[in-house]
Amino acid sequence: MPFGLSNAPSTFMRLMNQVLRPFIGKFVVVYFDDILIYSKHKEEHLEQLRQVLQTLREQKLYANLKKCSFLTNEVTFLGYIITAEGIRVDPSKVEAINSWPIPKSIHDVRSFHGLASFYRRFIKNFSSVAAPLTDCIKGDKFQWTEQAQKSFDNLKQLLTETPVLALPNFDQVFEVSCDASNSGIGAVLCQEGHPIAFFSEKLNNGKLRYSTYDKEFYAIVRALQHWSHYLLNKEFILYSDHEALKHLNSQQKINRRHAAWSEFLQAYPFLLKHRAGVQNVVADALSRRHTLLATMQMKVIGFETVKELYKDDPDFQKFWNVTDSQSSQDYYRHEGFLFKGKTLCIPQCSLREAIIWEAHDGGLAGHFGRDKTVALVKENFYWPRIEKDVYKHIQRCRVCHLAKAKSQNTGFYMPLPVPEAPWEDVSMDFVLGLPRTQRQKDSVMVVVDRFSKMAHFIPCQKTNDAVQVADLYFKEIVRLHGIPKTITSDRDVKFLSHFWRTLWRKMGTKLQFSSASHPQTDGQTEAVNRILGNLLRSFVGKNLKQWDLVLAQVEFAYNNSTNQATKKCPFEVAYGTRPHSPLDLTPSADKHQYSADAESRAKEIKKLHEQVRQRIIKQNSRYKTNRDKNRRQQIFKVGDLVWIHLRKERFPKQPNAKLSPRADGPFKIVQKINDNAYKVELPGTYGVSATFNVADLSPYLDDEPDINSRASSVQPGEDDTEQDITMA
Questions:
Q1: 233-254 burial by CB neighbour count: b if 16+ within 10 A, else e?
Q2: Distance between CA atoms of 37 and 547, rounded to whole angstroms?
């Protein structure tokens, strides 16, 4: 690619990065047309070389063989000599510097300084050594001084004696040594005593007036900024020959400059040490552990007693005894405390609960869930079964229950008992909100036979009371099908009225009420309501206020359609035959042949009812299997304390509902209706039914696990002919 074109270099660099993206950072470094492949072993290198060349061939990129070198332990790359031992300067560049004539102008000084600065990472305190040269550049008049000549010769000498810089190993601990002089600051980045890079900076006029303490402090800040890509997320040791900096984190009064620098240093995990001489230190004397121990000792009263618990602790006794003389796996001692890696081991004591409380309930914690709380705890601490302890704590957290309650996936599917014959067990509901017709009807009373699935749709008014509803039921249902054994309904005020309950008690009919705001109890009627809405929209069209005139057609259409559960239409199940429709009025052979004998006909009807009943049972069983796959059983006993979910459709809307609690409690269970329905000792201020589905209940765990919350007296419920029922 001709680099003379606009944006050609950046385009070519982007191309190389895109082509070699799978290998960059693993065994390839690329800069424009320079491709460096590095490996540890010959066989590995040959395979990686083959992959790179194959990729270049596929992309139609070609290399000049004369400029390539293969299977070498030393290579020149971007002005450096890279070897297995490390990095050193290119001798050809050093020769150019050594043969550089004495500068005669400011331009000559800048040229020499620029070339020498390319290798400043190899020269300790480069800025201080080159300070007289930079002074010559200032101003408009060139003046070559004796100090400049000495600096010029010194730089030439230092470049010929540059050390071999080691390559960084991120599995080892970095060491940073900082120093300051009257003219500049310097720093060295090392690992195990081998230099990796040098850094220096000449101080300007303002910083030259800093005190010695400030210069040393500034040297630390600039060194960490320069090598932040190495040090920001890596624990390291920081050396300084200024002993006063050892008390950097314990000063009570600091000025604005020191405050800004101290805030910057908080992002780095380091241990500051006074450097009396070159020495190596072990990796466990690092700042995060030191700061952690200092913080715990300051905030936890009696924290020192934790040391005495390790030797008898069932979780850490083994590792404590082994680390008495040597490290064991990831465990080791530091200042009398046991560490695993970077985390402090906490023996079995109340401190574990206090740590979890701070991570979950603390002022800046936020009451997050288990995973986030575990992550916060594990960042600095370790003990076996942290996840289990955190989960137990969250289960007992009152604030979490009140603020984050939701419906549980508890309670298995419990279908209502399958009836034996048509119209013995019925369900009722109302469809409200319809347009008021000319006949002043705005609602539909839906009555469904739970055996045959036959339904009657009776137009009525929303304001009808229990007496008027009972009158409608007798006129439209009882005159056709007789008195039912059970009536299943929701907790509408009409069905809970004294008149309604007394009437059906005298008739011998048992009333069954669903849990409040839990329509799944009578899912059959809810499904019929949905079908009724679809049929009305189909029949009415634009005549919205004449829906009551087509209600008879809608009822016939529904009862003449095949039900999914029974595989029969409701007419056939209830009457033993299907009524004629317009399609049946055409001349054709009779498809259904029934016995003329009454006894045989009765047997056919009984056989049909038995088939329907078995199909309903089979359908319920299939639905239960599918429904219970993602649900779990939750059983409570009378006397248990529970939280109740404040479902918005059940409890009256309050001001500032967005920030209102989503649960309340704990409340005592006073009656178990079945495995899915319980009556709770609810305060009368709520004004709602005290019967709850198990999905709206969650167990209350006391802060003290030993307290038995189930030891309480049973309060008897209302003994009446009607009963509460529920299903999943």
A1: ebbbbbbbebeebeebeeeeee
A2: 81
